[in-house]
């Protein structure tokens, strides 16, 4: 059995099918990990969502920024932007079933046998592995419960720094922001929600989240979606995945990619 981790799909179903074919994915034997951001931007978000859901236990998908945005738009707590391609999902006959399936996804997935950990964006350096799982569960339990709409209504980028004493929506917002929007931060772990582009091109004091000194999860092999284009070639133990690229979770690892099809 082989497991492949796949970066952001962004609603590009046809290109995803090319990638799945290129790696020789066999659902009877293999497994797929999706690093979030399945939907939006591309023209086929509905097809992507239906396909990944149809894979059942053959696939693992963690929540990304785009999934949380979709859930917020569906509840009327966020506006769909002019470049959003979510209407087909929101008007689909199986809309509610798909949205519920999304709400039940995790923010982090770990496989001790493979020794790989999957997240969408990042993992704060001041969290231990046990804390990372516990804090993720705090958000997951709210999203999967009857109070999920209140969480979506109160989603904000109002917390860029972790404090153990954070409570309520601020606490849940930081946890969700870290898992789905973390990219660059300062050496103390304060998040910057705007910085993007190659590592080393940022303003003074900003570093990729995985370069924060004294990380408490340095023993993990972390796979994540590289949607800010770090272009960092020296990040041992961390595996940034470009859009619609796949990482064969083996020793040694192998990257497989295809060119995204233009809409």
TrEMBL record:
Gene3D superfamilies: 3.60.21.10. Transmembrane segments: none annotated. Coiled coil: none annotated. This is Bis(5'-nucleosyl)-tetraphosphatase (Symmetrical). It comes from Methylomonas methanica.
């Amino acid at each position: 059995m082989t497991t492949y981790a796949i970066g952001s799909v962004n609603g590009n179903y046809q290109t995803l099918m090319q990638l799945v074919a290129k790696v020789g994915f066999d659902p009877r034997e293999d497994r797929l990990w999706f690093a979030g951001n399945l939907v939006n931007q591309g023209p086929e978000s509905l097809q992507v969502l239906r396909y990944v859901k149809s894979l059942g236990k053959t696939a693992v998908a963690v929540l990304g920024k785009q999934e949380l945005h979709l859930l917020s738009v569906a509840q009327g707590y966020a506006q769909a932007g002019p470049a959003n391609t979510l209407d087909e999902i929101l008007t689909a006959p199986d809309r509610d079933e798909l949205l519920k399936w999304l709400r039940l996804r995790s923010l982090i997935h770990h496989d001790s046998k493979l020794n790989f950990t999957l997240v969408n964006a990042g993992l704060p350096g001041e969290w231990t592995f046990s804390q990372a799982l516990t804090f993720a569960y705090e958000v997951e339990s709210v999203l999967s419960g009857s109070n999920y709409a209140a969480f979506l209504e109160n989603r904000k980028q109002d917390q860029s720094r972790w404090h153990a004493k954070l409570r309520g929506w601020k606490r849940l917002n930081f946890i969700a922001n870290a898992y789905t929007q973390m990219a660059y931060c300062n050496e103390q772990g304060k998040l910057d929600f705007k910085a993007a582009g190659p590592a080393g091109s940022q303003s003074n004091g900003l570093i990729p989240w995985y370069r924060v000194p004294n990380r408490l999860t340095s023993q993990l092999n972390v796979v994540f979606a590289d949607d800010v284009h770090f272009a960092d070639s020296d990040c041992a133990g961390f595996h940034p995945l470009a859009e619609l690229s796949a990482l064969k979770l083996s020793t040694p690892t192998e990257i497989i990619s295809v060119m995204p099809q233009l809409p």
